[in-house]
Task: inverse folding
């Protein structure tokens, strides 16, 4: 790296140790006030920067790249990167990176939190307790459904999907999965999972967990037609990205009892969400906290920082999205 430190922008608040590491190698423009940039203010701040540490809330597209002619590398603090126009980055030889691996277990834990919470109606019954509606024990009061021995269908069997499946072993579940292609036989055995078509998975699963990245190909992967193929008593979990589910169709399905319930960590157009969800008791809502443990978020931020420093030092970073952009 040149004696003159490259200037970089960090778009959101990060941990002090992450900033300290970045400042050892770069001149840092930080945003510890955590005031989100608009596209216009982001373009202005990035105009003379060589590096960018960004979050999934920051759109890195052709217009932003055109406003940042010195930009060499973008480090996304996320495993998903649908906020980044990778093709536009590659065309300008801007290396983009993400943070896979470090968040797999925490995100899998959150999917299970949603599954268990929805199955046992935890948020609904807590609201009723707080409202003073619990007057004593009754045999048929607020009945939920069992998770153990049920059939779990996982749509998307990457690292996180596999981590979700491995946790199902302790619940003695029957695990089906659907993926663009089958995983290796040894991984299927480790996860005790069987490959199925999407239609078969939807028809047979008591719990359907979505763990696919968002893209034009997965937009509304689960809509009214797919929900109609699910068991009436099934529960849908979306712990991956908003837009994979047609939220309007899901609201109608939950309202009309097409499926039993849903647990959601992500939404279309978040942080806005379909107001219909707020009127329903059979949905558990979380504010995109899949990776939100202190240890995991620290690891994500530091990995993004290491990716950026490596890229600006003309080395291949640990997690390139478009390695062909490496000079």
Result:
């Amino acid at each position: 790296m040149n004696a003159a430190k490259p200037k970089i922008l960090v778009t959101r608040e990060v941990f002090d140790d992450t900033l300290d590491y970045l400042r050892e190698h770069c001149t840092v423009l930080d945003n510890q006030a955590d005031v989100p940039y608009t596209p216009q203010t982001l373009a202005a701040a990035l105009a003379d920067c060589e590096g960018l540490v960004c979050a999934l809330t920051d759109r890195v597209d052709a217009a932003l790249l055109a406003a940042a002619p010195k930009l060499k590398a973008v480090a996304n603090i996320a495993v998903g990167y649908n906020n980044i126009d990778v093709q536009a980055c590659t065309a300008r030889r801007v290396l983009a990176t993400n943070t896979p691996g470090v968040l797999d277990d925490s995100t899998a834990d959150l999917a299970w939190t949603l599954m268990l919470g929805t199955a046992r109606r935890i948020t609904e019954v807590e609201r009723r307790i707080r409202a003073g509606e619990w007057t004593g024990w009754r045999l048929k009061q607020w009945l939920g459904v069992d998770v153990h021995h049920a059939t779990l269908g996982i749509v998307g069997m990457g690292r996180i999907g596999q981590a979700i499946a491995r946790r199902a072993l302790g619940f003695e579940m029957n695990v089906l999965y659907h993926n663009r292609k089958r995983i290796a036989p040894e991984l299927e055995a480790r996860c005790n999972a069987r490959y199925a078509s999407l239609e078969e998975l939807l028809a047979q699963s008591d719990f359907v967990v979505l763990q696919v990245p968002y893209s034009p190909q997965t937009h509304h992967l689960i809509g009214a037609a797919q929900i109609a193929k699910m068991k009436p008593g099934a529960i849908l979990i979306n712990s991956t990205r908003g837009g994979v589910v047609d939220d309007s169709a899901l609201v109608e399905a939950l309202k009309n009892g097409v499926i039993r319930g849903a647990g959601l960590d992500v939404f279309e157009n978040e942080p806005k969400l379909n107001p219909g969800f707020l009127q329903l008791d059979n949905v558990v809502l979380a504010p995109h906290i899949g990776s939100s443990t202190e240890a995991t978020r620290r690891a994500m931020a530091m990995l993004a920082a290491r990716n950026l420093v490596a890229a600006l030092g003309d080395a291949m970073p640990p997690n390139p999205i478009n390695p062909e952009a490496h000079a």
About this structure: The chain has a mean pLDDT of 96.
